[in-house]
């Protein structure tokens, strides 16, 4: 088995252990569960980083060329971003959401081809590096905002079945702030994603914008999160309306990441 595969599988197992341990710590009072979850999560990120490094050395380039490589970086960004946030403040429930999301992304890309192939001519540009890294940071931040929004909506839910969960979650105001701050971080990078993508498109295809499906859905993502901040600053939106908008935004992110690749043909079909 290739060293990259070994590191990938270790990361997958560690994220699974982390998710189960965080969930256990959330449900029952078990002193060892949360520290164990953190150790598993950091071990997973270290192994994940090793897999990225191995891929880079094997390919002779950064892993930015296809859906597998993008997903590898996406899951890494989600987990690393959450763990950095956790160093500053423990947020019950968000740990479960982040570790599950990182795990699910790795599970998805584990089914994709890992074959290393040369870059197609359109991808041989330094703008590709800036474009994809900006997207990774933006989407990872939006993933954190998604987790905060789901927990926020759960906290405000009136369903009797969720009463026990609501009591364990942080205050709704804190969850609202987590969502807001994550979007404040993510939106500038989403803007950079659009700008660098336009420059790259001009370099590769001779036009800054061609209404390619991935371009269009990236723009829709930007518009939704811009609307979130607009509504918050100018109209004073907080609570449920903002949480719902954040959830919709991340669903569009996932469609841009996966759905566009498989359902819509275009210049960004690099599955």
Primary descriptors:
271 residues; Four Helix Bundle (Hemerythrin (Met), subunit A); 2 domains; flat
How would you describe this structure to a colleague?
With 271 residues, the chain is mainly α. The protein folds into 2 domains: 1-114, Four Helix Bundle (Hemerythrin (Met), subunit A), CATH 1.20.120; 127-271. It has 9 helices and no strands. Helix 1 packs antiparallel against helix 2 (33-59). The chain is flat, with a radius of gyration of 19 Å. The relative contact order is 0.10.
Shape by Cα distribution: flat
Topology pattern, helix = H, strand = E: HHHHHHHHH
For the biggest sheet, the summary is:
none
Name the poorly predicted regions. Answer: none
Number of strands: 0
Mean pLDDT: 88
What is the number of helices?
9
Rg result: 19 Å
| Strand residues, percent | under 5%
Helix amount, in percent? over 70%
The first-to-last residue Cα distance is: 23 Å
Question: What would you call the quaternary organization?
Answer: single chain
Structurally, the number of domains stands at: 2
Quick gist of this model?
This protein is an all-alpha fold and 271 residues long. The chain has helices spanning 3-27, 33-59, 67-88, 94-109, 126-156, 163-168, 172-205, 213-234, 240-263.
Write the layout of secondary structure elements.
Elements: H1 3-27, H2 33-59, H3 67-88, H4 94-109, H5 126-156, H6 163-168, H7 172-205, H8 213-234, H9 240-263
């Amino acid at each position: 088995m290739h060293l990259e595969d070994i590191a990938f599988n270790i990361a997958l197992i560690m994220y699974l252990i982390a998710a189960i341990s965080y969930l256990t710590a959330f449900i029952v009072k078990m002193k060892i569960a949360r520290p164990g979850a953190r150790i598993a999560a950091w071990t997973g990120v270290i192994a994940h980083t090793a897999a990225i490094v191995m891929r880079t050395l094997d390919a002779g380039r950064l892993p930015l060329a296809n859906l597998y490589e993008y997903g590898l970086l996406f899951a890494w960004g989600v987990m690393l971003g959450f763990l950095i946030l956790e160093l500053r403040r423990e947020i019950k429930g968000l740990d479960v959401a982040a570790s599950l999301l990182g795990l699910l992304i790795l599970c998805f890309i584990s089914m994709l081809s890992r074959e290393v192939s040369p870059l197609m001519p359109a991808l041989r540009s330094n703008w590709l590096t800036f474009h994809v890294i900006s997207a990774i940071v933006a989407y990872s931040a939006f993933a954190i905002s998604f987790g905060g929004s789901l927990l926020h909506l759960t906290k405000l839910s009136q369903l009797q079945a969720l009463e026990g969960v609501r009591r364990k979650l942080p205050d709704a105001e804190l969850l609202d702030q987590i969502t807001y701050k994550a979007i404040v971080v993510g939106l500038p990078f989403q803007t950079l994603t659009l700008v660098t993508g336009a420059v790259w498109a001009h370099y590769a295809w001779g036009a800054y914008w061609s209404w390619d499906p991935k371009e269009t859905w990236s723009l829709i993502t930007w518009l939704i999160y811009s609307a979130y901040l607009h509504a918050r600053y100018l109209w004073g939106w907080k609570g449920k309306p903002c949480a719902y908008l954040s959830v919709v935004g991340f669903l569009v992110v996932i469609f841009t990441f996966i759905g566009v690749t498989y359902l819509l043909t275009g210049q960004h079909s690099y599955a």
